[in-house]
Amino acid sequence: MNDYFWSVGPGNNFAAAWRIFLKENLLAVYDESEAGSITNRLFEDLLSIQSLDFIRDPSLKISESDILLLNKAFKRLLQSEPIQYVLGTTSFYNCDILCDPRALIPRPETEELVDRIVTDLGPDFKGSIIDIGTGTGCIAIALAKAIPNAHVSATDVSLEALELAKANAKRNKAVVNFVCDDFSASEIEAQFDVLVSNPPYVLLSEAVQMDERVNAHEPHLALFSPEEDDLYAYRHILDFSAKHLNEGASIYLELNAVTAQAVLDEYIKKYENAELISDLSGKMRFLKV
After folding, report:
1. Radius of gyration of the chain measured on its C-alpha atoms
2. How far is it, in rounded angstroms, from Cα 277 to Cα 260?
3. For a designed S-S bond to 30, which of 35, 65, 191, 248 qualifies (C-beta 3.0 to 4.6 A apart)?
4. The model's pTM
């Protein structure tokens, strides 16, 4: 038992008391809504205690080993480490995705992108899809699961990220062909019917405005576009599309709202039907060809 954590805690083994204690102390880092949501996830993921269990049994107790698990997670959360890294997983489009600092944490906006692709292609699509800059593999894996007859490939320049992506594919029983390559995808020779990418698009000038949990813990290689060229990844993906997409192929890209118009201006030179699409919050977040 961690004497300090025990001494400043409720001083008993009642789950409800520890739930209140954790939520109140997480307010040092999170707002009230986040603190409550994260506390619930700690109990659900670490101890398999659901919110309804507190109602069913107000006198529910937890063991000292349970408290040790909560303590370990609590200390990491107070250091602003993202909850997805602390727990090691996150849910993404009906998939359970392993998360650690080898790759960016999947975002809800990217689920929107996947959902748009699945809706457009339909579950019976039998063509080929490539995900450039796959990270955790969440996009490629979600598409492989939702469109089981598609042939899905994915690339990433980071060998560490690819190892994580492969583990996620195995975890979710998804068939994906992974290739180590950068955004030029020079190692790829095949032709594809669909190209999707969520490349690094945060401007270095935006770093000071970012949440500390993101800036301090997530991999900068996957976050930031190069200072010398804000559209670096998008230009390379455009070049790739000219060589490796079949006639009538589709392109889906996630964007930074700040540079969305600039990306469209580049793509519309080659694809006159390129268009910007807003996310659920109203920001220009996606490009579709």
Report:
1. 21
2. 10
3. 35
4. 0.90
